From TrEMBL:
Residues 23-102 form the Thioredoxin domain. Pfam families: Thioredoxin. Gene3D superfamilies: Glutaredoxin. This is Thioredoxin.
Amino acid sequence: MPLQELNEKELLQLSRADIGRTAILFATPMCGTCKVAERMLEIAEAAGTDYPIYKTNINFTPRLREEWRIASVPCLIVFKNGRVVQQEYAMRSVDHLYKLLKD
């Protein structure tokens, strides 16, 4: 199942909500590595992750890009109760991402 795409306004609301952990993949449509990362995350999610995973186009999220200091794409941000707890740039394997998202 494809990852749900959110815009910056939706992500800002989500990041400020007291909802536990959430993961967001920052990517661009023309990035091949981003497409691979997205597919790997879809597989990890289908295997049963502990919290939701969303995606967004970094070109349309300038505020979050600055606030979270995202240096490149793909970038997986994991946050908990509005605080960034992890930034992952190297999408090593489905297994690695699955373990990351099972905490």
